[in-house]
Automatic annotation (TrEMBL):
One of its GO terms (molecular function) is oxidoreductase activity. This is SDR family NAD(P)-dependent oxidoreductase. Transmembrane segments: none annotated. Keywords: Oxidoreductase. InterPro entries: NAD(P)-bd_dom_sf (IPR036291), Sc_DH/Rdtase_CS (IPR020904), SDR_fam (IPR002347). SUPFAM superfamilies: NAD(P)-binding Rossmann-fold domains (SSF51735). Belongs to the short-chain dehydrogenases/reductases (SDR) family.
Length: 259
């Protein structure tokens, strides 16, 4: 799919990190972009910085997602591109002992469910709405739209404490081919990026020594990924018309250790 001024795109989690880098790359290529994000301050700032439209959106809510798509389409038109970067996680072991008291604790089910709802259901919620909108369009060069979802190396190499996050991201990987098949007759492609360790706001609390140690874990290049490298792959998935139903690791060949 050609990326130019005629193309409208939606990026969830677009106010920071991988999402913001993708917004910048799409805008640099000429596309009109709507940023979906929960944070109104950072969202408005990102929109002003990139010349995009900000739509406050909580991917946990049907009503919020529906309203965000309605606002985006009123501002820039029906999107032909959806990039889902909204997500998050927690770090809780399945069961553990308190080092001082010996008390046995379990992973609270509600906190496990929240991670799945945010990542897996939140992604799927946006996919369904966007697919329905894309289906109203006439095909251009044989296709109506393209979607790029975001999983994680944790989908296959989950570390200790990542049971919920691993499950949520593995579900995104697992549904990629199925959704691509579901939407194939409508001319809508679907792919997923599985990032490794990237330099994003999630790493803001890490010290330079910690970042250096994390980078040293990557076989080559021995550093953290840059968000622009994620965006570069997302744009290739959008442009390349034969790229469909795939999950691609973007991780410098790292395979995560248990901790």
């Amino acid at each position: 799919m050609k990326i130019d001024a005629s193309l409208a795109a939606v990026v969830t989690g677009g106010a920071s990190g991988l999402g913001l880098a993708t917004v910048k790359a799409l805008r640099a290529a000429g596309a009109k972009v709507a940023i979906f994000d929960r944070n109104p301050e950072s969202g408005a700032r990102a929109a002003e910085e990139t010349g995009s439209v900000f739509c406050e959106c909580d991917v946990l809510s049907d009503e919020s997602v529906d309203a965000a798509f309605a606002r985006a389409r009123a501002a820039i038109g029906q999107e032909r591109v959806l990039v889902c970067c909204a997500g998050g996680g927690n770090a809780i072991r399945t069961a553990s002992r308190d080092k001082e008291t010996g008390e046995i604790r379990i992973f609270p089910s509600d906190k496990f469910e929240w991670v799945l709802k945010l990542n897996t259901v939140g992604t799927f919620r946006c996919v369904t709405r966007s697919a329905a909108g894309m289906m109203t369009l006439e095909p251009v060069d044989g296709e109506r739209g393209v979607m790029v979802n975001t999983a994680s190396a944790a989908a296959t190499d989950g570390q200790m404490g990542q049971a919920a996050y691993s499950a949520a991201k593995a579900a995104i990987v697992g549904m990629t081919l199925t959704i691509a098949r579901d939407l194939s007759r409508e001319g809508i492609r679907v792919n997923t990026i599985q990032p490794g360790i990237f330099h994003t706001p999630a790493m803001a609390g890490a010290t330079p020594k910690m970042l250096e140690a994390l980078g040293a874990m990557v076989p080559f290049p021995p550093r953290l990924g840059d968000a622009s490298e994620y965006a570069s792959l997302a744009l290739e998935m959008i442009r390349n018309g034969y790229f469909n139903g795939e999950t691609v690791r973007l991780d410098g060949a790292i395979r995560m250790q248990p901790r």
